Amino acid sequence: MRITGLGHAGMFIETAGGSILCDPWVKPAFYGSWFPFPDNRPIDWEKYGKADFLYVSHRHRDHFDPWLLKTYVPKDIAVLLPDYPTDDLEQDLRGLGFENIVYTHAGEIIERGPLKMMVNPLRAPSDGPIGDSSLSVDDGTASILNQNDSHPLDLEKLLGFSKPDAYFMQTSGAIWWPMVYDLPQEAKQNFAHLKRDAQNKRAMYYIEKVGAEHVFPMAGPPMFLRDELFAYNGYGLNGDAIFTDQRQFLAHMAQQRPAQKGYEFLPGTVVEVNGDELSVTQTLYADEEIERIFGDKWTYLSEQRDARQAELAEEEASRAPILPPDEMLAVLKDWWEPLLRRGRILREGVGGNVRFRIGELDMVVDFPKAKVRAYAGEECLYWYTIPADLVSTNIRDREIDWSNSIFLSMQFAVGRSGKFNEFLTTFLKCLSRDRIEYVENWYAEQSDVTEDVQLAEWVVQRRCPHLRADLTKTGKIEDGVLTCSLHDWKWDLTSGQCLTSNGHPIRAHHVGDAVSHEANAPAAV
User: Fold this and answer.
1) How many CB atoms lie within 10 A of CB 205?
2) In the β-sheet with 110-112, what is the strand arrangement from edge to edge?
3) What gap in Å lies between CA 255 and CA 261, rounded to an integer?
4) CB 391 within 8 A of CB 358
5) How far apart (Å, rounded) are the C-alpha atoms in residues 233 and 407?
6) Is the CB of residue 131 less than 8 Å from the CB of residue 122?
7) DSSP character at residue 320
8) What pLDDT, on a 0 to 100 scale, did the predictor assign at position 519?
9) Which one, 183, 218, 356, 396, has the greatest CB density within 10 A?
10) How confident is the model at residue 352 (pLDDT cuts 50, 70, 90)?
11) Is residue 312 over pLDDT 90?
12) What is the pLDDT of residue 523?
């Protein structure tokens, strides 16, 4: 089996039973904020577009590049479609002309001669843009797992496919926290450090559980080439960013697991696997250039920024004209209020007012009352400041996922009183009837009726209240605080209260105490 890196999460897999093009991305994404690192434009996209299968893991624009797919990929290619709760990705692909859809199902193995493939979908509201997935491939000569951005809970089911010889996984950040928040600089630096540590812990957890001999960090980091975002590359010029690069993670992994074999996976990296035998060759960049990219990163990033301003100008020219404030308010009111009325659990989960300053428009979303109106001085839980041209473009395009557009662009600012509110973020990426109805049903089914288990000197519900991970495998208790290592969420076991987000209480009591302390926690929603 031969795997060629195409940049970021992109790869071209050649097997004994056919070739698979995975997550190809080259055009700047998220309103021109994200570029693949290192530059992957010199890739021979004409060559790699002619695959037997196309696999797009999810709708995030650093994995799904409509321009590249339309330009280089034949429309009769067989498309491996993850089994998601809504059909947004399928409609996106059909809109580009792809009709040869192979519908996959969780745990189902697709066989094409000697080639076996399995797409493992994740379907929780916080998984990507309402869905994320991984791809397992085995052709009899080798087995690989392309996990990219997904964070699966059921590893037994996933690894039941076959034990991977090579493991490709996300290790870098893909979020706007804490860079865009209204925080003192020292707090941003501290939170960024904690976020990087949490990302490293999660990656190391998966490396240990998957147990593959060979590990390839990928699916990040991006390059930020807009002037206002340039300082957030990598760990940040001021230490307040979260984007660990391939070399930095490999150094961390070498400290934690000295015997683990890890490799830089870049545009043009060719990995050949035949059972226990593996070779890695760099074909696009010479070793000296790779050393310069990582060893003198800020110079390389500066050169990229200076050379690619035309791409930023082209993206800005594609945005919609700014709507007048009254018209924008009317459109958002007509669009969002019906969704708010359908989203009872989301409304209760947010539990207050959220302010949006969008150019000259100053509006509030009253979640308890399901109303959108002009701001009138109300106290608010969150307050966003967003450029009006981004919102106008989302309105023009009827963009149903503001996480997959404005928020990942980092071209906004936000403040909040209190903890992170997952329900608010979920609402803002579920701006369609299908998505709202799905997440309402998903949250409604999350009331925990599973067994309790003992961890250290505590008895807790077995399933994590966040995404139902098995806490016997992912939970760790220190000083009465439970941490789920999968996403680094925390609970105070004495009260049952979630320390990471509003809601999500846990059922717990100390050994010998028969009373569940969930009753002392905020009401479940």
Assistant:
1) 16
2) 110-112, 115-122, 132-138, 143-148, 166-170, 214-218, 261-262
3) 12
4) yes
5) 17
6) yes
7) P
8) 35
9) 218
10) very high
11) yes
12) 34
Q: How far is CA 106 from CA 45, 170, 215, in A?
A: 30, 21, 24
Longest Cα pair distance anywhere in the chain, in angstroms?
67
Residue 407 burial by Cβ neighbours in a 10 Å radius (0-12, 13-18, 19+): buried
- The secondary structure of 83-104 as a DSSP string is --SS-HHHHHHHHTT---EEE-
Locate all alpha helices (DSSP H) within 404-432, ordered by sequence: 408-409, 422-427
Judged by DSSP in three states, 258 sits in coil
User: How far is residue 414's CA from residue 385's CA, in Å, rounded to a whole number?
Assistant: 6
User: Looking at residues 231-242, what average pLDDT do you find?
Assistant: 97
Per residue in 480-516, pLDDT (tens digit) is 999 998 778 899 999 898 998 877 889 998 887 755 4
Q: Which residue has the tokens 């369609």?
A: 432
- What count of residues does the chain have? 525
Which uninterrupted H or E stretch holds 371?
strand 371-374
pLDDT at 63: 97
Rounded-to-integer distance, Cα 459 and Cα 453, Å: 5
User: Are 192 and 241 in contact, with CB atoms under 8 Å apart?
Assistant: yes
Residues 65-72: contacts with CB under 8 Å, at least 24 apart: 65/24, 65/25, 65/26, 65/27, 65/29, 66/92, 66/96, 67/26, 67/27, 68/24, 68/25, 68/26, 68/27, 69/24, 69/93, 69/96, 69/98, 70/96, 70/97, 71/45, 72/24, 72/45, 72/46, 72/48
Range in 322-331, 422-431, 516-525 with the lowest mean pLDDT: 516-525
Degrees, nearest 5: CA angle 386-180-307: 85
Taking only the tens place, the pLDDT of each residue in 84-125 is: 999 999 999 999 999 999 999 998 999 999 999 999 999 888
129, burial (CB in 10 Å: exposed 0-12, middle 13-18, buried 19+) = buried
Identity of the amino acid at 174: A
DSSP 406: I
